[in-house]
Every structure is written in structure tokens, then in C-alpha cells.
């Protein structure tokens, strides 16, 4: 698999590490426990376009939000989380 | 001998000796093992998988289902190698497989008599009952009977390597279509890789008597290869199989660098695994001829008619003098003509009622029987005769079968596309291919020479253009389209075993039986009969099997469909995938800057993650490691010692928002830390469990240096980057791993200040000037810049000194000269357990800060990672296992379970386990740290320590998890 890193260009997936689904926004400190539970544990598992977090750990070290089609592995785009 | 007097592409000047089953033979350079065996008149080369039937050579290349042999001996023994792809070399030793006691007399051939029992689904039906028989009776029985060759038992002595390459156009296959594609792309200026699995590129151009532009086809191929070799950006990879089409234009390939040699030359790998990233690919893998299922179609001497042409024209071998050609199309007639030209006596058995006059004319001299079929064969270990459906018997030592062609479109299906049945071609052709891949030539159903050349040239031009290199169409030399008429003929019904899948011994009757038993889906029938599941992956058998399944279920082949193709295209040695990454080279070994110094001081080393760390330093007279460790630990308690702690992760955190970021990742407060001071910190995961611990030194308001545990160094940096980039992108802060930039030494013991003072004359080191948990940038005597930290892991007065790596040995020498004792990780662990600091056994990912007695560190005044979920009821349950100390008279071992005294040793009574244990030279007793249910309330009681794995069972006293200086006076002294 190849990922188009916004900083380093088209790179092999072996240079990246992933934590899977991009998590939802982190709840406020005083949010109810149910909200924290959802934040930590609940993820979509779509057959199709899927937002994932990949870090270019053997490259620019940037965490990227990668849109990947889980059926074909086609990568629709990757953008740095900090941008 | 059946070698022809002239012709072929073998080197007649170079004779090679080889052996098969111990019998010596000779062949020529340029032979394969198969062609050399045929040249020596050897037809019987193996026994079949299930029925142990005698088998010979069917094909010409990688499609070979029958002629699987063991090559070489000893550690280099290689089972299940196709004789048709094994290049001959001097001294090659090959053996037949799956026979006992000998190839000519095989006891298990008796299986053939039980054919009706060993039919489709035999294993499923037979080994079902009774269940208790499975492990003791059935499985050993099946294992003994299963498999073909024997794997070597020694470690592979050869080297393998990995290569990565990028190109504009990858051309897979160097037959007519592939050569034309590569030439068109190369002339367009594209970077081209041309991979071909054969030793000599050319494909069918080497096997057939054809002309291109007035030249023999093989000469044209040589011309094109010479031109390609002249391009700077063209890479030719012979002996290279592209075995998989992966995502985004990534292809896997294996280059057999030295398989054609007895042993790889010095410095040369046996095989090279390639990862090729190609903008575009042209699949020009060609096609293989399929057999026809009729009784006895597996007898040695029954061969693919197109393979017979290959043996005649490429290897100058006449596989039989009295040949019958059984054909369902025009192609078989070309084999008849070539056999006639080589001097054989030929009978053509043509399934069609009529053929074009020109075709019959070209095989003038052969007896021609039209509208006929072969019903069976006769002979013992080799073919002696052929019977037609009308009862006619023909004596024969060679039966060449031409059933039509199967395009090798495998790689086009590696992303899940299923091919489409073409009723006119009588073949599956690709309907779709992975993005960026075009299929050309015979693989795409262009079955004739001129069509292959034109298709390949067009595909190569298009691929180059799509990769950004537009060019001019190739001016192709003149070539003819040979006649390619064909009728559908897959099976001649009759009595006797008609084989479809030779390698797995699947017969036409097996497929019909599967259909009757309800396995109508092609995927089910495949698994039930094992059709196409052998190492050749159904190269020759799939289409025939599908046709028989279609007929048995009253459907068309198109309706029946086909199974999916998956990588690898041919078997791949694991070594070629691993490359150099085996054994010690599986991953890099990290050595600290003091490694050489420690080795010179007699240190033993231990693996700690990727690191090698000094474990202890043995001294003369010590009787074992315990003597060394006790001496080192006591030196720290009573005098002074020093230890290499360079492996601890070190991360610089710099910027105006550095403190804000650290406040998010540490559970305790960091913002209030003053410059020049250090704080012990704990990080939680977001789920509330402890992630890592370490120290945080603040050198300036906007500059921190963190230490992490050795094991978590990379993960902590990643965690910090995540917290910054994903959770708090607005913070202005930079992170940098400086683990390798600083060699670090811990100097510990009552005399530590004195020794340090010798390195820093004139620097005030007293408790006023430099109290416990202070840090400073200093310059050592002699001008070496250093970082100084006053912190203690051992519980003694201690300092850590960080210096540039190349200054580490000089620092160690000075400490040694000042009388400090070097100590290793084992003594470090003893000191740590005595002091009750948590380590890897306690930071196990399942403990909370509260479990480890660190609950009061969690800040109530700020948000931090893990704060919310650390409050979950289960994480604050008072019944959780918590950290306690153990004192014992007998040996304590980590991992031992804790039980109430007198309680039975069952899971239900398990109260926890020992996490760390050692002999304490300070106390003169065994001590341990443990996680114990309701541990705080058990302090002062006794507990049973049970170790069923290693046979330990003793009692220990539960105590506070600190065995020395509970008030912490020593480290502050």
C-alpha cells in the first residue's frame, strides 16, 4: 500500500504506523462517563471510506488523517492532523 | 538417447553430469532437469500424491503438475521442485518423491485399488468418528501419508536479500507480447523493468518454429533483448517470477539468483526478493496448454503437445519415436509437423471432423484420424499404446495432448476480479485488472503471434504514455497469425481414472461425485475435491474441472464461474521474503556508547529490547553471577558504584507551550516545576491505566528533558507527538528524541558526592546548592560539557551524568579511577526492588496509579490523559490487586501465585502474583514485590507463594513495598 504524505510525498505503507479509526474529538474533562466510553471504545467499521490515523513514523513523524476505502485500499487523501 | 543430432538452444560443447535417484546421467548446458531426463530416455520421474501412480513430465515450465523432485542434498535439500524449471548444473543430485521403497516399485500404489473409497471428500467422510481417534490415530496416519517431498532439517546455509525498485512500466513476461511491450515503453523513454521467470527470456519464441521479420523468432527475441539492454533505464530480470500484485502498483517478485548453480558464489544470495512499485504494469504472462481428461491420461509419456514442441525446438530432445497427437484444435497439428520433422512416426487423432487442407498438408506424412478421441492408454510405468473410443489400438511411446490454451491471467485477479468466459476462444479472459495493470498477448486471449506482438506493443506504448512518457507506435516486423481453430473438448467419458488435477489426483469422477453430493458452487467443489489446491494452483486443471462441473450441473461454464486467484503465483521461499532479517539480524542490535568499555571490564551482556546492556561485571574469585551482583549492589549501599543508564529514553520538549503539553500527558502537575528542578512523573493511557514512568527535568521555562523506561522510549515519543498533533495542535512546542545523543551514567552511593566533586572542582554540590531532584548544565574538568541530574533509583545519594557519547568511556575511566564500582542491570534491579520502585513487572499495562501506590500523584487541578477513565468503578475498586512487598526464607520467583495459607491452589483462590523478586544482599533475605488483592490490609500477615510451573511452594510475610530507608533520608543526604 502507498500513502501520499503531505510532507514527504508518495511513500510505502511500511514507513507508517496506524492506530486504526480516527477517534472522535476528545470529550471535555467533565463530560459524562458514557461520552468518554464512546470516545475510547466505539468505532465505526464501514465497508467503504474510512477515516484513519497513520503516523509517518519512519519519515516526518507527522500524524495523518488518511481516508482509505476498506474494500479496495484506495487512499482518497491524507492530511496532517495539525493542519 | 533421444537427443536430436542438431538444433536446439543447448550448448553441445558443455556436458554436465547429474544424477537422478542415484543413477548418473549427462546433459548439456541450457538443459532443464526435465529436458535432460527426457534426453536420457527417463520418463518415470515421480509418484502421484494420493494413488501413488507413476508419473512423468507433462509440461515445459512452471505449469508442471507431475514432475516434482527433490533437488540437492543435506541442508540445501529442496522438495517439490518442478523438473521443468530446474536448470541443469554440474553435479546436480535429484531424487524422486512420494515413493517407497523405490520409484519403480511403490508399496502405496495399492491405494489405486481403493480408488472408489479414496474419492472426493474421503477425509471428511472417513475421519469423522469416533472423535477420540482424531489425535491419536487419524492425524498421525494422515500426516505420514500426506505431503510429497521432505523438507531439510538443517538451517538453510544460504543468504537471501531484499530489493526495492521503482519504475514507470513493469512488464511481466518476456514472450512476444512482453518483449514488444517493453520495447515500445523503453523507446518512449520510460523506466522499464522486464521480469521473466525463465533463464532465457523469449517465452514461446524459443519453443516454436516461427519467423518474425524474416528471422527465426528466437533471433528476433535476442535482437530485442540486446536493444533493451542498451537502455540506461531498462532493467532486465531473468529467472524472476512476479508472484503477486498488491495495492497501489506494488508487486512482489522473486529472482532466483543462484538456483541454477550448485552453491551460490561467495557474496551472492541464493534468491532475491523484490518489491517493485510500478506506475503501470503490462501482464504478458502468456498461456499454458490444458490437458483433456480421459482414462489413463496421467501415464508417463502423455505430454502437453505444445511442451513436446518446446522439447524438440529448444532442447533438441525427441520425447518419443512413435507419437500419437490427440488434438481438439489446429495447434496440435503444429506439434505433429515438428515431430515429423524430427523423424518421429506420427498419428494425429483429431477430435474435429474436418480441418483446413493447409493444416493437414503441413502434417503430410502423419497418419490422420479425424473425428476421433482417445479413450484410454496402456502400459506399465510408461506409455505403450493408445486406445480410441472406437476400440482402435495404436502402439505409441508418446501421446501429445492439445486441449486448448488457458491464459495465465492469475495476477489480473489478485485484487478480486473474476475473469470472463469467452465462448469463441474457449478460455477465461480478464474482465478487469488491478488499477494500473494492462493484460496483453496470450494472457489476454490473443493466441497468435502477430496478434501478440501488436497487442504487446500497443499496451507498452499506452503504459508508458500513462506513466508520463508519450512515444511513437512501434513499427512491427512482419509476422504471421498461425491457425488457431479449436473445439471444446474437456473430457472423454469412459471407464478408468481420467485425471483433471494431476498434482492432487482429482479425477473427472470426483468432480461429478461432488456435484451429485450438492457441491455445485465452484468454490465448494474446489474445497471438497481439492481441485486446483496443490502447489501448481490449478494452472493446468482449473478450466477442465470447471467444464466438467458445468456439464455435471447442467450449466454453462460462464454460469459456473471460476475461483479467485490469490498470491503467490508460484510458491515463494520464506527466505526470499525475509532477506537478511533472520537470526541475530532479525532487527538491529543497539549498543550503548559504553558497550566496548564494559566489555573491556569483563561485563556479561543481556538483551533488553533491542539493546544489549551490561548485566554484571565478574571479578576473579567469584563463583557465579550472584557473587558479582551481591558485591556490586553492596558497593552502592556502602560505598559508591556507577551504572550505564544510556538506554533510558530521553526526549527534549522545547517551546513556549512545552509545560502545557507535559501537563496534558503527565498525570501529576508539571507547570509548577521550577527551572533547575526535576520531578518524577507518571503517564497514564487514556483508558486510565499506567503507561510509563520517568523523570522530567526543567532546564529553562521553555525547555524540558524527559526520561522514559528503556522499553517504552519509542512509544512515549509517539504518544507525545499524538498528544501534540492530534489533541493540542495549537500548542507551540517541538519534540526531539535525544536518547542516542547523550551517554548517561548513574553514580550512586554514600560516597557519590565525593567522587563527583573530583570531576567538578569548585562546583558547589551540597544540599543547599544542589538538592535532591535538581538538574544543571555543567562543564566537567577537562572541558567536557555535561548535564547533571541529582536523582536516585537505588535509594542512595545519587547523580546521573549525561555526556556526549564519545566522552562516555573517558568518564567511566575517571569514575573507576576514583574508586567507584561499575554495576550492571542485575544489581540495578536488586537496588530497585530493595527501594520498592516499580519496573516492567509492575508497569504491565494492567495496573493503575492507585495499584502501585502512586494514586496521590494524580492531579485534581488539571485535565490530563487518562484522568476521566481512571475514575471508572472497576479501576478504583478497593478489591483490586495492589503493590506490596514480600519477605521470604526460601526462593521467591516472579510469576508465582499468591494464595491464602491453607487455601487450595486453584484459580478461584488466586489472590495475585509476584512481579519482581531477588536476593537482597542488604537484608540477607529473599525479597519480592507483588500485586495482591486487598494487599494493604494484608500487610503483616503471611501468604502462600505457589509456583506450579517450577515446583515452588513457600510462605512469605507481606510487608510495605520498601525494604530500605522508608523515609528517603539516604537519597537526600
TrEMBL record, chain A:
Pfam families: SoxD. InterPro entries: SoxD, SoxD_sf. It comes from the Bacteria. This is Sarcosine oxidase subunit delta. It comes from Falsiroseomonas selenitidurans.
Automatic annotation (TrEMBL), chain B:
Pfam families: Fer2_4 (PF13510), GCV_T (PF01571), GCV_T_C (PF08669), Pyr_redox_2 (PF07992), SO_alpha_A3 (PF17806). Residues 496-579 form the SoxA A3 domain. Residues 883-965 form the Aminomethyltransferase C-terminal domain. Residues 168-408 form the FAD/NAD(P)-binding domain. Residues 594-861 form the GCVT N-terminal domain. Keywords: Oxidoreductase. SUPFAM superfamilies: Aminomethyltransferase beta-barrel domain (SSF101790), FAD/NAD(P)-binding domain (SSF51905), Folate-binding domain (SSF103025). InterPro entries: 2Fe-2S-bd_N, BFD-like_2Fe2S-bd_dom_sf, FAD/NAD-bd_sf, FAD/NAD-binding_dom, GcvT/YgfZ/DmdA, GcvT/YgfZ_C, GcvT_C, GCVT_N. NCBIfam families: soxA. Belongs to the GcvT family. This is Sarcosine oxidase subunit alpha family protein.
